[in-house]
């Protein structure tokens, strides 16, 4: 059963009635630009076919009733009982109601049935997909008229202020704004966007996603620590954000920090911003070997300077490069998750098999692999 039919069936079972609509919001791949979003920098994600699906209908009694198809669980609360917390999967939904009402939008209760095929904890933004699909639904159900970028901001507020994960805007912007066949170049300060064509198959190439099955969480202390390091480095350098530090003369500028940890953190962000700009230019010029070089350099920076990779993702990158990939990098917040390999369509299966063999030799479970294609952002299905 497809997920749209699964949420329809679950909704009808829970309520005895048909929903007012069904919505979808995708997970995302970040092609390049890691931990730059909360530093006012640049990112370039694209949306995945994997997505969260939601069947929804309004209630006039202030009750929020949710069934999770994936977990086989049901949760119920009221609008008046909502308060910031990260207690379970339903916080990502309850937080959306809270964020909308805090922003002054007149939102009532709802019955909701949720299902998702975005892997949880894999660095593919499963939480953003859930937040964004509900923002889309409530925007339509209650005729709120919220612009797309503002919908993304409200979804991010759910994650930051309600769930307590100090993420930037990239995940929610990607889930909301991406278009099929394109990567989204986003300036996280100005919020200007450009849809950059990403038709790798036309050039005989593909993005292979290797899910290492090593799970992470944005709400843990490591992510918050990295963000605090960046904010401290920006203060010491006398700039609003690390985005304002130029690559030219970077070593001399960073030496003034006097703290090697802060030097490494800042160096990653500043050079990663430049890599995003260079990657965007490479895509416009159809220079895929250059894109691959930038992806690999990004991974090295995350591994050595930002220190957010982990043994399984490093191994997957090394094996992919040894078996013909033009470039490879971890994607997502770090400490596990997925690796992207830019490779010839003819080499994709070889790389996937090689990573699986190496994982087996290391005593790891076989990774999940798939070829990613740029999909459409959030919207109403029916």
TrEMBL record:
Residues 281-359 form the GHMP kinase C-terminal domain. The record marks 28 as: Transition state stabilizer. Mg(2+) binds at residues 127, 159. Substrate binds at residues 34-37, 223. Gene3D superfamilies: 3.30.230.10, GHMP kinase, C-terminal domain (3.30.70.890). InterPro entries: Galactokinase, Galactokinase_bac, Galactokinase_CS, GalKase_N, GHMP_kinase_C_dom, GHMP_kinase_C_sf, GHMP_kinase_N_dom, GHMP_knse_ATP-bd_CS. GO terms for cellular component: cytosol. It is found in: Cytoplasm. Pathway: Carbohydrate metabolism; galactose metabolism. It is an enzyme of class 2 (transferase). This is Galactokinase. It comes from Micropruina glycogenica. The lineage of its organism: Bacteria, Bacillati, Actinomycetota, Actinomycetes, Propionibacteriales.
